[in-house]
Design goal:
The protein has about 350 residues and is mainly beta. It has 6 helices and 18 strands. The longest helix is centred in the first third of the chain and has 11 residues.
Length: about 350
């Protein structure tokens, strides 16, 4: 298990470590802003443009605003970069933001990534390339916390023409269950390796379930309440005389943090990376090799590499597992997640 310092919004600024710069919108007072039009105002720190047509004029540069004390996304980004603090974000997220750096878009978004167009509160989540839209202007804190359960919230992809979809009252184009899934693109060569309790034909992480650094992760349900989340991971060479299997498997579960002994299967983002080599005892078999990966939004992910009535002459299997605690049910307030290797199992190597 590894940990990242990030706020729950997963927006760019929410994934940075600020020094002396507030990353949340102030609701105490209106921000004075010198405006070129009565169709634009600031409401609780967020720019409100009263018509899509006026927004078109602003985003295309046909009209300009004097921003003075308005805390825009661009201003916050500039101040953070000048401070010399490290940006605690992935290369992919950094690339996503810098593609828009210096643009009118970042000047119009508030420091958390919000803008109000007509009656729509719109939040741009650059981390997972999703636009969160609601007609309830009081949902900023919930949206920043990753809570998109409100019926007033719709989700759209960055590739969508969102204004056009809002004009026709289109439903979401992104499933809410997938919104909080972290985008994972690569195997982590520096991930820790689980070895306790492993043997030549099986390795799992059960020895670490109660380990505060590598085991269960304490989190909060979106509906409230403390929960314990668990990732049960293993890779196994199963042998039963006339049936043989080589596979890796991960299961994500939860239970209330109140002494309950019942674990409930819970869907989340799971990744599995593997590297194997084997030779079957079946006549005419040749050495098989593979390095690949699989992922799912489910409570379980399994990859079977070999299944036969004949055993293996030799094999090795290495697996790396990644899991988001909580998934569709909740989240880790600390930003913790699982990513670890299981010790190689092998025979004949």
């Amino acid at each position: 298990m590894q940990s990242k310092k990030q706020i729950l919004s997963k927006s760019l600024l929410g994934l940075m470590i600020w020094e002396g710069i507030s990353c949340t919108t102030s609701f105490d007072e209106e921000i004075p802003l010198e405006l070129a039009s009565s169709e634009v105002e600031v409401i609780q720190g967020t720019l409100k443009v009263n018509s899509f047509d006026k927004y078109e004029d602003l985003i295309t540069g046909k009209e300009k605003l004097s921003f003075r004390d308005f805390n825009s996304f661009q201003k916050g980004l500039d101040e953070l970069k000048q401070s010399g603090d490290n940006l605690r974000i992935s290369q992919e997220e950094y690339n996503e933001i810098t593609a828009w750096e210096g643009s009118t878009l970042l000047e119009l978004l508030d420091q958390d990534g919000f803008i109000i167009l007509e009656d729509y509160l719109i939040y741009l989540n650059f981390n997972n390339r999703t636009a969160v839209v609601s007609t309830d202007l009081n949902l900023k804190d919930e949206i920043l916390a990753g809570d998109i359960s409100s019926e007033s919230i719709r989700l759209f992809k960055f590739e969508d023409d969102v204004i056009g979809l809002l004009e026709i009252n289109s439903p979401s184009t992104v499933e809410k269950a997938s919104y909080n899934a972290r985008i994972l693109n690569s195997f982590n060569p520096s991930a820790a390796t689980v070895s306790a309790g492993c043997r030549w034909d099986k390795c799992d992480n059960s020895q670490y379930f109660n380990d505060p650094f590598n085991g269960d992760i304490l989190g909060i349900a979106y509906s409230g309440g403390s929960f314990r989340y668990r990732l049960d991971a293993k890779h196994v060479y199963d042998a039963a005389a006339i049936s043989f299997r080589l596979f890796s498997k991960a299961k994500h579960m939860r239970k209330p943090e109140d002494g309950s002994v019942v674990w409930t299967a819970t869907s989340t983002t799971l990744y599995l990376f593997w590297d194997y080599e084997f030779l079957s005892k079946k006549s005419g078999s040749t050495l098989q090799k593979s390095m690949s990966q699989s992922n799912t939004l489910n409570n379980e992910l399994e990859a079977t590499f070999y299944s036969s009535s004949r055993g293996l002459e030799k094999f090795y299997l290495r697996s790396q597992f990644y899991g988001e605690p909580g998934g569709i049910h909740g989240y880790s307030p600390s930003g913790a997640f699982w990513q670890f290797n299981l010790q190689q199992i092998d025979k004949g190597y």
